[in-house]
């Protein structure tokens, strides 16, 4: 059974950092492209970042580029999202998810196969 379990969210002030984790079971993260997506209050789903299985490359949405970093620990089968210099607009429920198509940067939930339950990030002063 495939499972994704996100953790690491919390309440922080603007400018602070958080590291989210996504622990996978039932498959190897290294064999799949993996995306982080988020849904802010009153907003739609938004693609945030990707890590590609073929070469471990990454890509980021313009809104987070330079502040967020995706990484992976193959031994722990866990994906991470390091979030620095957080802004109030980063407030959202964050999910890790497996895209249906290789290289996808979709913000459409229907374009993903597996999701976790999400972890809440709240940035507020």
Structure write-up:
The strands form two sheets. Strands 2, 4, 5, 6, 9, 10 and 11 form a seven-stranded mixed β-sheet that branches. A four-stranded antiparallel β-sheet has the order 1-3-8-7, with no helix packed on it. It has strands at residues 3-7, 10-12, 18-25, 34-39, 45-51, 58-60, 68-73, 78-83, 92-99, 112-115, 119-123. The mean pLDDT is 95. By secondary structure, it is mainly β.
Q: Count all strands and give the number.
A: 11
Radius of gyration: 13 Å
SSE sequence, one letter per element: EEEEEEEEEEE
Helix coverage percent of residues? Answer: under 10%
Q: Main β-sheet, in a few words?
A: 7 strands, mixed
- Beta fraction: over 45%
Query: What is the straight-line distance between the termini?
Result: 40 Å
Class by alpha and beta content: mainly beta
Mean pLDDT: 95
Number of helices: 0
Low-confidence stretches: none
Q: Which geometry do the CA atoms define?
A: globular
Q: Which key terms come to mind for this protein?
A:
single chain; 125 residues; seven-stranded mixed β-sheet; four-stranded antiparallel β-sheet; globular
How is the topology of this model organized?
Layout (H helix, E strand, L loop, with lengths): L2 E5 L2 E3 L5 E8 L8 E6 L5 E7 L6 E3 L7 E6 L4 E6 L8 E8 L12 E4 L3 E5 L2
Parallel strand pairs: 2-11
Antiparallel strand pairs: 1-3, 3-8, 4-5, 4-9, 5-6, 7-8, 9-10, 9-11
């Amino acid at each position: 059974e495939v499972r994704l379990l996100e953790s690491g969210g919390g309440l922080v002030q603007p400018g602070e950092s958080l590291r989210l984790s996504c622990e996978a079971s039932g498959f190897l993260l290294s064999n799949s492209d993996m995306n982080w997506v988020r849904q802010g209050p009153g907003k739609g789903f938004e693609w945030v970042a990707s890590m590609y299985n073929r070469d471990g490359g990454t890509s980021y949405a313009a809104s987070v580029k330079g502040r967020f970093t995706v990484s992976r620990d193959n031994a722990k089968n866990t994906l991470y999202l390091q979030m620095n210099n957080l802004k109030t607009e980063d407030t959202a429920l964050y999910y890790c998810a497996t895209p249906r198509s290789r290289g996808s940067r979709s913000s459409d939930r229907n374009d993903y196969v597996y999701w976790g339950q999400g972890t809440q990030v709240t940035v507020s002063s």
